[in-house]
Structures
1.
Amino acid sequence: MAVTEASAGANASVPSDDTDTDTDTDTEFRAEVRSWLSAHLVGEFAALGTGNDLGGPAELGVRRRWERELAAGGWIGTAWPRQFGGRDLSLWQQLVFNEEYARANGPIRVGFFGEQLLGPTVMAFGTDEQRARFLPPILRAEEFWCQGFSEPEAGSDLANVKTAAVLDGDEWVITGQKVWTSLAHLADWIFVLARTDPGAPKHRGLSFLLCPMNQPGVEIRPIRQITGTAEFNEVFLDGARTRADLVVGGVGNGWKVVNGTLGFERGTAFLGQQLRFAAEYWRLVDVARDRGVDRDPVLRDRLADAYVGLEVMRQTGMRAIGRALAGKPPGPEASTGKLQWSRWHQRLGELATDVLGPQAMVTGGDSATGGDAREELLYSFLFSRSHTIYAGSSEVQRNIIGERVLGLPREPSGAPRASDR
Ligand SMILES: Cc1cc2nc3c(=O)[nH]c(=O)nc-3n(C[C@H](O)[C@H](O)[C@H](O)COP(=O)(O)OP(=O)(O)OC[C@H]3O[C@@H](n4cnc5c(N)ncnc54)[C@H](O)[C@@H]3O)c2cc1C
């Protein structure tokens, strides 16, 4: 494998051919992104590394500052239309930005839920007042969001949510429990799927509410994972209040709106993450070389297989981009991409532990920061176990492919519908 281009990355060797498809304008744009990142991704920001460890309040402060730095550089909302304050960059340029961001080991984006999910949802389903109120603070990295969908009895079967919202004068009063709420401890706002009409059939009577986090009726309890870190939480809503007009898409239309949000999640929202996987792959190749195991015939085979998987993932990503460029929302075939990247990254983690050998059994603590390739690979291996669950579990994705792409019979009654999540 002829794969190195030393000038390209902070840590990783990268393939020399991933700029082949750039036009002249893209080449200029790539140079602009590289130069901005090399000037701004320094000091405390560079020290964050690529891990998900969201540490204590001090580190959260650095992560918020990094988001503001990105905002000041015009790198938040690059995909958003200009009419909503975005940069309306072409999908290709967004891809270039994400490629360069991954190559430079840019920190995990804690503004993800606002920029990738809530913003597009409000643009598509919100009122003008909601757009004017909520979009600018996302672009300025002044307000952060979390996603309050899942509950103990509502994951894949999302329409089963029990959290209730009742109108009290000009406010909704929300009561219920959300779980697996990523970044709730950092968020200023939560978008909540709640039942506003308990008498209506399961998929009706739901509403999509916007609720402030900083109030007495909201309690956040962290959930610690095998990584040692706690990116997600339980969120208890006990009489939490929000204004009556903060319903996106109208009262009772929550199911339609939530499916719009999930469409954004399944579509191109995780492309940036997949590009980070590519940078991780090349880091692993470097580690294999450093440890001299690049001569091991079995590990060489697996590294080559992983490269093939990486290329397949890239092509699948391109197809998703092509579809989005043609103005088509992600269809059921988006599930193939989700299955592909989640399994591929889990296998890469397993390969990383074999490349590291006995070193894989020791970590320096629960932090994946500081640019230590070994720590980052191990952290990523552990975190990757969750890929086949979030954003739609693998079993549900297979049901979607079976039923909606292949036209196979539906799941036996009683099981959640493949379209649920
Ligand atoms: C890292 C991470 C971050 C997350 N972040 C958030 C967040 O920010 N906000 C949020 O709302 N949620 C979040 N989630 C929750 C996530 O969306 C749910 O875990 C997911 O939807 C699955 O729901 P569940 O955990 O309740 O499992 P269940 O739905 O109970 O599923 C249990 C098992 O049964 C299988 N199964 C379920 N239905 C079927 C079926 N019809 N056919 C075959 N098999 C089936 C599933 O695949 C799974 O293996 C996160 C999860 C993870 C792991």
2.
Amino acid sequence: MVVRTSADVSRHVPRLREIRPLLRLQMPRVSRRSRLERAATIEDLRTLARKRIPRAVFDYVDGAAESEVSAARALESFARVEFLPRVLRGLETPDLSTSLLGSASSLPVILAPTGFTRMMHHEGELAAAAAAAEAGIPYVLSTLGTMPPERIAVPASGRWFQVYLWKDRATTRALVDRAAESGFRALVLTVDTPVAGARLRDARNGFSIPPALTARTLLDLARHPAWWWNVLTTEPLTFASLTSTEGEPAAMVNRIFNPGARLEDLQWLRRIWDGPLVVKGVLSAQEASRVVSAGADAVIVSNHGGRQLDRAATPLEALGEVVQAVGSQAEVYMDGGVRSGADVAAAVGLGARACLIGRSYLFGLMAGGRPGVRRALDIFRTELSRTMSLAGAGRLDELAEGIVRLRR
Ligand SMILES: Cc1cc2nc3c(=O)[nH]c(=O)nc-3n(C[C@H](O)[C@H](O)[C@H](O)COP(=O)(O)O)c2cc1C
């Protein structure tokens, strides 16, 4: 039946043979893998992680210090990025590869050091390191890691170890020696943790390590049985590189780390470590120049993901002055708020050689272990490649040729 609705358009009752090609009816797929595959962004992985993981653990990852202003500003700074695309440049598939500390990396992305990783997923650091190795990018094992350095299976060139300056040099030295013996190639010294930041979500949630079986957590057990089953049936959650470290994380950090650390301690580390030395946690030209003059081969412009000094400067905004001050003598990386391949393109366009990602890969890990981290890295790769194509950059260094600017 044909109905005339206006002079030019007529309607008819839909016919089955017209509808059939449009139908995409499938049995709903519920496997863990398929939900991961359907995650199109890091935010999708975050949503999945939030469902699968107890609230206190999710908050430990997602949260930041005090009012969480630094963490929010880091995300907001990426929203202010503006691309100025180049057109008609005859580009084919963009080349995403780079070299970091003299070794090839398939992406300008590094998995950041994160403590307590087996709490997010029972395979913890092993899963993350394996996904980094598969992707051909470096992995930084935290001093507060929950897997021994000897078990981290990343090719030596991508095996980096993160340390703090402890109150006694002997402990720092023992960690550095163990890293060297386990084949770690680069050392990352974190300098923004003289005391613990105030992670208020953790305090409110009564978060402890290992997670305590209180009345509240027992209730949670019913809602996240798989997570609890994995915690209770795999190796106990301990710090693999440390001893005597149970309890509330902030108190532990304050027992161990050294507010009295000085530039001479960095110079001492430079003397005892032969490989590349990276300093993590500078936010100004002045501090970057000091640590580079004391022997750092690379610096990471970082405020620890907003987890230490709240309202510390925003890394993406501080990047330019650091690159200008030390970019000709040292590699400059940044982290904080990097949640997409487009964010990586922006940071590289503003002078970073690479970005570290923390929460972005942990969301993947919490959502689904090693395949979850793999998914996160696939998302980064796809987005970076697409952004470069759309922006008219065939190579990473071309992004810095005026393609990226930051709106005020
Ligand atoms: C759960 C968690 C644990 C972390 N543990 C460490 C650590 O042990 N050592 C360190 O230097 N940085 C640590 N960081 C900071 C990260 O290395 C990185 O600087 C930060 O996550 C970057 O911000 P993003 O999470 O927005 O990517 C941690 C971050 C998170 C989220």
